[in-house]
Design a protein that fits this description.
Strand content: 15-25%
Largest sheet: 5 strands, antiparallel
Structural class: alpha+beta
Shape: globular
Low-confidence stretches: none
Number of helices: 4
Distance between the termini: 33 Å
Length: 124
């Protein structure tokens, strides 16, 4: 139980019955990336619901195993995903948070994925 991965804007942790991932899309860095995403694709106004849409598409193409057992609870200012609490799912949550962090830290990769796949994403 406890923290699995932490950055200012993304956190993976286990709590109660869940292994959770939280992306704080109102974080200054994430918010700025969201604004650039909206410039690339007019439908990509990056609230929690659209981060869900983007990340679902990304995982489906790049890491489909992480979608197995994944539940989400997006809000306007935050994207939350969770798995039932098992050691395997804690590793999934950690890996998912690492993927989000990698996309935020390597924003050109994120933007290119958006350019290539934006029409396939089920935006809010």
């Amino acid at each position: 139980m406890g923290d699995l991965f932490i950055k200012d804007y993304v956190k993976a942790f286990s709590s109660g019955n869940y292994a959770e991932v939280c992306l704080y899309n109102e974080d200054k860095k994430v918010y700025g990336i969201g604004e650039k995403m909206n410039e690339i694709n007019e439908y990509a106004y990056m609230n929690g619901y659209n981060w869900e849409a983007f990340l679902n598409c990304y995982l489906a193409k790049k890491e489909p195993a992480l979608l197995e057992g994944l539940k989400t609870d997006p809000e306007a200012g935050m994207y939350t995903a969770y798995y039932g609490l098992t050691p395997e799912n804690e590793q999934k949550a950690k890996k998912f948070a690492e993927i989000i962090s990698s996309l935020i830290e390597n924003e050109e990769e994120l933007f290119q994925f958006l350019r290539d796949n934006g029409d396939e994403i089920e935006w809010d």
